[in-house]
Amino acid sequence: MIAHVFIDGAAGTTGLEIRERLAGRAEIEVMVLDDQDRKDPKKRAQALNAADFVILCLPDDAAREAVAMIENERTRVIDASTAYRTAADWTYGFAELEPGQAAAIAEAARVSNPGCYPTGFLALVRPLIRAGLIPHDFPLSVNAVSGYSGGGRAMIAEFEGDGPEATATAFRPYGLSLAHKHVPEMQKHARIEHPPIFLPSVARTYRGMIVEVPLPLFAFTRKPSVEALENVLRDAYRDSPVVQVLPADVPTVSIEENAGTDRLSVRVFGNDETRQARLIATLDNLGKGAAGAAVQNLNIMAGLDPTAGLVL
Ligand SMILES: NC(=O)C1=CN([C@@H]2O[C@H](COP(=O)(O)OP(=O)(O)OC[C@H]3O[C@@H](n4cnc5c(N)ncnc54)[C@H](OP(=O)(O)O)[C@@H]3O)[C@@H](O)[C@H]2O)C=CC1
Ligand SMILES: CC(=O)N[C@@H](CCC(=O)OP(=O)(O)O)C(=O)O
Fold first, then answer.
1. Fewest CB within 10 angstroms: 30, 126, 162, 220, which?
2. Ligand 2 atom nearest 289 alpha carbon
3. Does the ipTM surpass 0.90?
4. Where are the domains of the chain?
5. What is the pLDDT of residues 230-284, one digit of tens each?
6. What does DSSP assign to residue 193?
């Protein structure tokens, strides 16, 4: 059976990446609206209700509007925006996050695709919290740097254009009011008591990201070793073709490591004498951070090979 998939927002940064991954797949027929119709509410409503699956690659408000336009029970939704990532009646589309999460995604009618930063953060900490190595009430922090495509078309224009919006910066921290939209999502799905302190930044590179969590293990009740942390993460991702735990035997880690792929790599650096650890994830904000995860979720929901079309 062929799955009919409508991509709403197909001309945007994430939409284009999803189209690339779905191109040439015999089991999927992709529907997109052409340039003159893509913002026409009637045409969108028609397509949204004709599809078996819709993937929303839109700003939050337009995503909410699209969901409200769906009037039938059959159309299933994957939303790439922030709109529903903490909504109780949506399934969180991070297949590797919990045992049973992929099975929940397979059955779900509404799936919210994780944010790019939460993907790195949750991959690093959730198995350790579940295993009790990081206490639920520990005040975590997360440092991260993203390529500028993470800010969509507007930020790409800022870094690549020469108009009044253009910037010449190589690197800049942001989210300085400590109220970034990803924080509630991180807290909810990590299942922790306090919002993490989130320190995002953007660098002059198109795609890719590094997400880090520093851990003062000496301050934890169980004072786990660095090896114990790595073992828990290895066990959590043992069967995953997408998330890999790599040995921490490299002197440095680059933002380009997984750029252009749908992989997510995790490493546990640390010092057992000082009982300090530094968890580092690398991924592509447009790969596992957006389009790769959306395609993985679509595969799972449609009962197809979960990794079909992914760049691994
Ligand atoms: N970029 C990234 O790394 C990631 C992005 N996301 C999320 O994915 C979603 C899309 O982001 P991204 O692709 O970066 O953004 P872009 O700005 O690149 O693309 C958004 C697209 O949606 C279109 N659009 C806006 N309003 C409407 C509307 N009312 N009806 C139909 N189309 C509309 C825009 O058209 P126009 O430009 O003409 O207004 C544009 O083509 C966002 O919610 C973002 O948060 C998630 C993870 C990572
Ligand atoms: C560099 C940059 O600006 N990044 C975006 C996040 C991109 C992303 O993945 O988040 P959403 O899916 O929630 O949009 C930001 O910090 O808002």
1. 162
2. 9
3. yes
4. 3-114+290-301, 116-285
5. 999 999 999 999 999 999 999 999 999 999 999 999 999 999 999 999 999 999 9
6. S
Q: Could you name the CATH architecture of 3-114+290-301?
A: 3-Layer(aba) Sandwich (3.40)
Helix or strand or coil: residue 122? helix
Specify whether the CB–CB gap between 255 and 280 falls below 8 A: no
Confidence bin at 222 (pLDDT 50/70/90): confident
The pLDDT of residue 140 is above 90: yes
Going from the Cα of 204 to the center of ligand 1, the distance in angstroms, rounded, reads: 20
Residues 6+ apart with CB under 8 A from 7: 15, 18, 19, 30, 31, 32, 54, 55, 57
Residue nearest to atom 7 of ligand 1 (CA): 81
Cβ of 200 less than 6 Å from ligand 2 = yes
**Residues in the chain, overall count:** 312
Determine the Cα–Cα distance for residues 242 and 13; give it in Å rounded to an integer. 22
Listing from the earlier edge strand, what are the strands of the sheet with 171-173? 171-173, 197-203, 141-147, 209-216, 276-283, 264-271, 243-245
Q: Residue of the nearest CA to atom 31 in ligand 1?
A: 39
d(CA 120, ligand 1 centre) in Å? 21
- The residue annotated as part of the active site, out of 28, 78, 116, 243, is 116
- Ligand closest to 173 (CA) is 2
For residue 116, indicate whether it is catalytic.
Answer: yes
* CATH 3.40.640.10 is held by the domain 116-285: no
Q: Which residues contact 209 (CB under 8 A, 6 or more apart)?
A: 116, 117, 120, 144, 145, 146, 147, 150, 255, 282, 283, 284, 285, 289
pLDDT exceeds cutoff 90 at 93: yes
